[in-house]
Amino acid sequence: MPAALIFDLDGTLVDTVQTRIRAWLQVFAEVGIGTDADRVAPLIGSDGRYLARRVADTAGAPIDDDRAEAIDRRAGEIYGQLNLDPQPLPGARELLMRLDAHGLPSAIATSSRREQVAASVAALRLPREPTIVDGSHVEHAKPAPDLLLLAARELGVEPADSWYVGDSTWDMLAAVAADMTAIGVTTGSASADELWRAGASQVLASLGELAVPDR
Asked: Rg of the chain's alpha carbons, rounded to an integer?
């Protein structure tokens, strides 16, 4: 039995991956970096500054850290304007409620900036505010393990005793780096095969399939 479950947000708990992709495509169009959805989609879930640099490199227009920071921040602003009606993914709210009822600690660890998180968390309609660790809390977000390790510290549990649940390869890589059990769900932009290859211990079609034992 896990000591705690830690969750990604976009594409794992809420159906916002396509909105994320639209926001990134818009900001890259604004700054004149050519790309498309096929190039952006596999990078959703990673640190936004990392995503910006990867796309720029692929387009043959490398950017420095300051430029990556500005693009990431602007992408977040656009996302906030687009993310007006986020919807929970199947089984997400029920699972979080079940964990709470069984006394199993849980948290959300997302690469998103703090100002981008509120609308999606509110869509889950939870009876109390969950523990949230976002990209503003660490210097390096996913695929680095920093977010996950901080979430485990916030919950007072050992990383090796925790499960991390996410929809992207970056989630799986971060979980492996944090020495957590990596649980993949195919509700984002990554396929089951991609999640397995990135280190998933289990891959599910939805959170409704995640069996969590009672305490």
From this structure: 16
